[in-house]
């Protein structure tokens, strides 16, 4: 049985107490590895290794030297593309057709994007008058924040982990990463690439385990951690904020969402159907930016529902190695229980099940997997938990609206504000409505279209802070002003 160990100070190490947990393939329910669970000793060793590396060769490198290494990290991921792809798909069950085009390429690109950015990012300088007439010069410099605790999610494991590690290392920090217990493999494998690329020992560290009473809680509480970045659900984010309050440490939180799509009658319906199919069902609905609430203007409501139903039923369910598959399992049987509880809740609340609503029949060798059907509902009241709570599964509820004002009010009615999508061919309406949506990102006639230089993050209970481009640098650096009297 394969073992997945911690990566601390440039070496793979097991847990002192030998405590391990199962890594399960969600496509068939089979155990594929044993993962070492970190205790206080392992977390402390990782933080100390990161702290030492800050004062060692990593801290003494020039920006040019550091970013050249990060380019080699990106190239190392690409060179071992098939290994990363296999590990990611075994952990998540997602089709290789999806992971090969998004997860692994973006996982590598995150290192190059932020390496190139830090090479060219400007700061500021001001001349000022002084009473003696000689003047003074103020200029700003960016310095690394220190040791960053990185807690990454299971839905896009490599992509979202490197989305944090890439800018953190580009800015000169060292990291201790706690990947999700569901998807530890690619984060662990990256240690080999770091060593091969010449990243000094202690710069990149990985500890495995769970959240509360395990590696996650130990890492966020550790006084040697200077800042914490987390992507996950809102309740966990609140817990991390409480831990970070001791020592007044900064947090960057990308949290839950219950994202709305607004489809106006003047939309290009083909585009709206294709985009909503992706936003509701991509990655089996396990995307923080996914659309679980769809509001459709009444004149096209019936046609939209019928066409989205046909699109959902055309999805090809299958295991990662099936080249025709574009719809995989959920990440775990535990998560499936949660999703199926909402499927039952919808029925209890009187929903019309347009399609899906249960578990698909699978071949015998996949019967133990975490499979659910892509599901569409109509007819639920606005206060149903299915409409107000994040499900994180392949499902959406579709509701008609009559006016622009009503659509905006419905979209803004929940405490979340991560993302939204608007479908209309009226440019004035698109701009007007987008400006009133309470969300960190609003797409118009598209979904998941990302320029990595732009700000990304949530409003309200969907997060604190922004990632992407210079906005990531604001979190991973301290901006210091130096005043020189002339």
Structural key phrases:
486 residues, alpha/beta, 7-stranded mixed β-sheet, 6-stranded mixed β-sheet, 17 helices
What does this structure look like?
The protein is of the alpha/beta class and 486 residues long. Helix content is 39%, strand content 22%. It has helices at 40-55, 57-60, 63-79, 81-92, 96-99, 103-120, 157-170, 185-197, 215-221, 234-245, 269-281, 301-313, 333-348, 385-388, 404-411, 427-436, 469-476, and strands at residues 3-4, 6-8, 11-13, 20-25, 30-36, 125-128, 136-144, 147-151, 174-178, 204-206, 227-231, 250-254, 259-263, 291-297, 352-355, 375-378, 395-401, 416-417, 419-423, 441-444, 459-460, 463-464, 477-485. Helix 3 packs across helix 8 (185-197) and helix 11 packs across helix 12. The longest helix is centred in the N-terminal third of the chain and has 18 residues, at 103-120. The model has no long low-confidence stretch (mean pLDDT 97).
Q: Provide the β-strand percentage band.
A: 15-25%
Strand order of the largest sheet: 15-16-17-14-13-19-20
Distance between the termini: 67 Å
Structural class label:
alpha/beta
**Rg value:** 23 Å
The biggest beta sheet is recorded as: 7 strands, mixed
What general outline do the C-alpha atoms trace?
globular
Contiguous low-pLDDT stretches (5 residues minimum) are none
Integer average pLDDT: 97
Number of helices: 17
Percent of residues in helices: 25-40%
* DSSP summary, beta strand count: 23
């Amino acid at each position: 049985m394969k073992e997945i160990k911690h990566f601390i100070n440039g070496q793979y190490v097991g847990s002192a107490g030998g405590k391990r947990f199962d890594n399960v393939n969600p496509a068939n329910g089979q155990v594929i590895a044993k993962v070492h669970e970190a205790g206080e000793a392992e977390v402390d060793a990782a933080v100390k290794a990161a702290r030492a590396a800050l004062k060692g060769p990593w801290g003494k490198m020039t920006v040019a030297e550091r970013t050249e290494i990060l380019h080699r990290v990106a190239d190392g991921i690409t060179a071992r593309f098939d290994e990363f792809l296999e590990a990611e798909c075994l952990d998540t069950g997602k089709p290789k057709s999806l992971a090969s085009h998004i997860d692994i390429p973006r996982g590598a690109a995150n290192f190059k994007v932020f390496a190139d950015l830090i090479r060219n990012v400007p700061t500021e300088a001001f001349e000022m008058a002084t009473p003696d007439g000689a003047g003074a010069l103020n200029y700003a410099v960016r310095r690394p924040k220190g040791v960053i605790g990185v807690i990454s999610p299971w839905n896009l494991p490599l992509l979202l982990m490197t989305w944090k590690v890439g800018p953190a290392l580009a800015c000169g920090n060292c990291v201790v990463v706690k990947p999700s217990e569901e998807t530890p493999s690619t984060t662990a494998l990256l240690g080999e690439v770091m060593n091969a690329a010449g990243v000094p020992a202690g710069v990149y560290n990985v500890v495995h385990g769970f959240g509360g009473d395990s590696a996650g809680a130990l890492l966020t509480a550790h006084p040697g951690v200077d800042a914490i970045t987390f992507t996950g659900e809102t309740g966990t984010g609140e817990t991390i904020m409480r831990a970070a309050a001791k020592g007044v440490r900064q947090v960057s939180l990308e949290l839950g969402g219950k994202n709305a799509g607004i489809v106006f009658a003047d939309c290009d319906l083909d585009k709206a159907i294709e985009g909503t199919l992706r936003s509701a069902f991509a990655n089996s609905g396990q995307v923080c930016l996914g659309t679980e609430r769809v509001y459709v203007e009444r004149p096209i409501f019936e046609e939209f529902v019928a066409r989205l139903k046909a699109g959902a039923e055309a999805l090809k369910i299958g295991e990662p190695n099936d080249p025709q598959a574009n719809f995989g399992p959920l990440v775990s049987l535990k998560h499936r229980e949660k999703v199926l509880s909402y499927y039952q809740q919808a029925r209890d609340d009187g929903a019309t099940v347009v399609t899906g609503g249960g578990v698909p029949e699978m071949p015998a060798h996949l019967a133990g997997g975490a499979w659910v059907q892509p599901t569409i509902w109509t007819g639920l009241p606005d206060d149903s938990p299915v409409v107000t709570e994040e499900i994180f599964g392949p499902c959406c509820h579709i509701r008609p609206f009559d006016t622009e004002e009503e659509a905006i009010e419905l979209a803004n009615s929940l405490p979340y504000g991560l993302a939204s999508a608007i479908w209309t061919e009226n440019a004035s309406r698109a701009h007007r409505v987008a400006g009133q949506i309470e969300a960190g990102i609003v797409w118009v006639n598209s979904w998941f279209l990302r320029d990595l230089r732009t700000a990304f993050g949530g409003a309200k209970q969907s997060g604190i802070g922004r990632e992407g481009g210079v906005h990531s640098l604001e979190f991973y650096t301290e901006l210091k002003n130096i005043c020189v009297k002339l």
